Amino acid sequence: MIGKIIGAGVGAALSKQTRSIGGTTGAVLGTVAVPIISRMSLPAMLAIAAGGYVVKKFADKGRTGAPRANV
After folding, report:
1. Which of 5, 30, 68, 69 is the most buried (most CB within 10 A)?
2. What proportions of the chain, in percent to the nearest 5, are helix, strand and coil?
3. Chain-wide mean pLDDT for the chain?
4. What is the tens place of the pLDDT at every residue in 47-63?
């Protein structure tokens, strides 16, 4: 029970940093994420974390690429 409340609070706080997710949606996602994460194995969690890291690196690399000269 307390884990769901903490998850809802974290989800609501993270939703403030994301434009596409509102506060209520973030709270619901945080509440739903707690039981899903608690049932995952450690290798699955590490694989998801590594995948998220790789996706973020590619997204940041594409966003901060050198500007092209118009020829």
Report:
1. 30
2. 75, 0, 25
3. 77
4. 988 998 999 888 888 77
Give burial (CB, 10 Å; 0-12/13-18/19+) of 55: exposed
pLDDT, position 37: 77
CA distance 70 to 28: 46
Identity of the amino acid at 27 = A
Let me know: does 4 contact 34? Beta carbons within 8 Å.
yes
Q: What is the pLDDT of residue 6?
A: 75
Instruction: Report if pTM > 0.90.
Output: no
The alpha carbon of residue 1 and the mean position of all alpha carbons in its chain are separated, in whole angstroms, by 22
Locate all alpha helices (DSSP H) within 16-41, ordered by sequence.
23-38
**Per-residue CA distances from 29 to 4, 39, 50, 51, 71 (Å):** 10, 16, 21, 20, 47
